[in-house]
Write a structure and sequence with these properties.
Elements (H helix, E strand, L loop, with lengths): L1 E4 L4 H12 L4 E5 L11 E5 L8 H5 L4 E4 L15 H18 L4 E7 L9 H14 L6 E5 L2 E2 L4 H12 L2 E4 L6 E2 L2 E2 H10 L9 E5 L5 E2 H12 L4 E4 L5 H12 L3 H9 L12 H6 L6 H15 L6
Parallel strand pairs: 1-2, 1-4, 2-3, 4-5, 5-6, 6-11, 7-10, 8-13
Antiparallel strand pairs: 9-12
Helix pairs in contact: 1-6, 3-4, 5-7, 5-8, 7-11, 8-9
Length: about 300
């Protein structure tokens, strides 16, 4: 039995489908299990990571547990703290329960860290959670990814909405910073294969697509795939605080999500070794333009894109 936390989320939901398609028994943990569709091979469990409610029961009998939870929403009370506080408490609660239940392997999806620079609060929180979970079980694996290209990826949706709604695209100073975006399909495949990859046990690995692109190049590539002409306007500064508020309003995404994501753009987010994980797992990752086309096509099956 494999447990998936965050099963009602974007990546968690895709992973549930992937594992069930392979015939692997899955238990999905969610605060509200009624949000999940019951089906053959899927066992539903209710619980809350931060309080610990139902977590040990959900982990009972599981050799592998996927941790796909990350708190970016605004706190509901002053006692909640910021998202890093909530993430820390949830990870510590989960790690304690995993040790108590004898879980052999925790698989975590986090974020690539900037080399030689202080990480943003968003990335720093993910690294802290990674360390907590790697200590929970000796064979655990942490996968670090940069921007995911998928129809429901928050970061990708923000970029698409900006291209869709602005004819003039202000490009802050971080437009030159580079990263290696990863197709959602490939991220899910890395996660699904991890329990069977012995070489990944006890490791933190960076997973990335084949293309090294600046954020400006990514935005221009998305505009080209959407078939629209947009005029980029280069700015000499980043202006992250005021820009976050503008982007939040333009993209219909909450400010508490947009601001930490934009702060992460202040540095280059390049993998420590771009080839190690794909070679270890035997995965050929999709190029950026192909990943974008797949994501836009899926997006349009359920939601119209005005600029396309």
């Amino acid at each position: 039995m494999e447990l998936i936390t965050g099963a009602t989320g974007y990546v968690g939901g895709r992973l549930v489908e992937r594992l069930l398609a392979e015939g692997r028994p899955v238990r999905a943990l969610a605060r509200d299990p009624s949000r999940l569709e019951a089906r053959a091979g899927l066992e539903l469990a209710g619980g809350d990571l931060t309080s610990g409610r139902g977590v040990r029961e959900a982990l009972e009998g599981c050799a592998t547990a996927y941790y796909l939870v990350h708190s970016m929403e605004a706190p509901t009370s002053t006692e909640d703290g910021d998202f890093s506080d909530r993430d820390r408490r949830a990870a510590e609660s989960f790690a304690q329960a995993a040790r108590a239940e004898g879980v052999e392997r925790v698989v975590y999806l986090g974020g690539i860290a900037p080399a030689g620079a202080e990480p943003s609060a968003h990335i720093g929180s993910r690294i802290e959670v990674e360390q907590i979970l790697l200590e929970a079980a000796p064979a655990s694996t942490a996968l670090r990814a940069s921007l995911l290209i998928g129809s429901r990826s928050s970061s990708f949706r923000i970029l698409v909405r900006l291209v869709e709604r602005l004819r003039l695209l202000p490009m802050p100073g971080w437009r030159r910073n580079r990263t290696q975006p990863l197709a959602e399909r490939d991220a899910v495949e890395f996660l699904a294969r991890t329990p069977g990859i012995e070489a990944a046990a006890g490791r933190s690995l960076d997973i990335a697509g084949p293309d090294v692109l600046s954020y400006g190049e990514m935005i221009e590539g998305i505009a080209e795939s959407m078939g629209v002409a947009r005029l980029p306007i280069g700015l000499g500064v980043s202006l992250t605080p005021p820009a976050s508020a503008v982007v939040s309003a333009l993209t219909d995404q909450p400010l508490d999500l947009v601001r930490p994501l934009m702060e992460s753009l202040e540095h280059e987010l390049l993998p420590r070794d771009a080839l190690e994980a794909p070679e270890m797992y035997g995965i050929r990752t999709l190029p950026f333009d192909r990943a974008v086309e797949r994501a836009l096509a899926e997006w349009e099956r359920t939601e119209e894109l005005a600029a396309r």
